[in-house]
Amino acid sequence: PYAQNNLGRMYWNGDGVEQDQVEAIAWGILAERAGVRYLRDATEKLDIDASIRPKAELRAKELLNEMRRR
Predict the structure, then answer these.
(1) I need a labelling partner for 6 at 20 to 30 A (CA). Which of 25, 34, 38, 50 fits?
(2) Overall pTM surpassing 0.85 (yes/no)
(3) 6 phi and psi angles, rounded to 5 deg
(4) What residues of the chain score a pLDDT lower than 50?
């Protein structure tokens, strides 16, 4: 879960990857489901477009399905 959270932070900040809020929050959702809340706590303090969270939820499901197939 900490690696998922770190990926979320990398996507959020554009650190080594193209900055992508949807991808960042999707990884944060996966980390949160595993018990790590750091990214969510940080993003809740920011003014995030309400349309991003549903897209991130969908992307999190896609990521989870990809991980299960491996």
Answers:
(1) 50
(2) no
(3) -65, -40
(4) none
